[in-house]
Amino acid sequence: MAQPAEKAYYRFVVLFFNCLLTFGSYFCFDIPSVLQDQFQGNLTCPNATVINGTVDCVEGLGMTPQQYNLLYAIYAWTNAVVVILAGFLIDKLGNRFGVFLFSFLCRIQDVKLLSVTYWLLVLTIMFFYNGIFPFIADASKFIQDKYSYYSQKEAAYIAGAVYDSSLVLSASVGILIDYVGLRGVFAVACAVLTLPVFGLLAFTFVPPLVSTIWLGVTYSFAAASMWPSIPLVVPQATLGTAMGLATSVQMIGIGISNLVVGQILGTKSSETKIPLWRWQRMMIFMLANTISCIVTSVLLNVVDHRQGGTLNKTTKKSGQEQRDLDREPLTQAEEEPNEQDGDAVQSRSINS
């Protein structure tokens, strides 16, 4: 009789609630970007004037760009600490306290044994997301400052197109990658194809919706190819720890990136419009992270190829290998009777 966890309905229920959890997390993490004007607006607007129905002063919390981006850094670094412990608890849940404490000390030693492939994969994830989340945090303000004909509401919609396109594509992209394989190749392709996004935003006036949709597409492929690769390169017993550690490194990188972005954009809250050259420097910083992602993903593929090509196995190849494994016991079983028959014939010949 099948256990509940093996039944389809049970898995879909778990998946449904997991999606709700992810939605809540991303909603809380990204909603400040829509209200960036209010976070960085002036505390009071005593001399505000109205031009063409638009007030030239926005009342808000009076935060500087540096303080605003610090909010994201604090969130990321808190997450970085919590997920390591959470991953370990998933691996060791149910053990007694003494065994738990001893196992924790052993688990710290096990971290040293994680493969080079794993660490390159973690760095690839970190550098890719360093260009995604810090950009989304400031995207609405960037669009309003560079493309002055967009309102705050329109800029928020355009910035949200990253997630809108990901929402549409993620499921089909995941199915595609499961069918095709080649996760390492997809990781490199995602990084390379993300380069033009920040180039367009930094040095051209191409409508920003093109770039945000484009970024959403590469983000969908990256999420479906990079994170599911972790279980392929670590032992099953350390999977929770490995996932937690990967998320921790990712969040540390994102937190640092947010601080750098805040420093690049300046610290004067009186500047209602951030100069374009500051936004260009921010996009160049995003480009630098993307280039670093390309380097680590290429090294990841090189190391993985030398170690057997686990990440880039195609579905067809994997299926053929499985069929070969399925035939091996049968072949051995066929050979054993033949050997026994040969021995019997030889024995009869000697006796005769």
TrEMBL record:
It comes from the Eukaryota. Keywords: Membrane, Transmembrane, Transmembrane helix. The keyword Transmembrane applies. Residues 318-329 have a biased composition (Basic and acidic residues). It is found in: Membrane. Residues 310-352 are annotated as: Disordered. Residues 333-342 have a biased composition (Acidic residues). Its main location: membrane. It is a multi-pass membrane protein. PANTHER family: MAJOR FACILITATOR SUPERFAMILY DOMAIN-CONTAINING PROTEIN 1 (PTHR23512). This is Major facilitator superfamily domain-containing protein 1-like. It comes from Pundamilia nyererei.
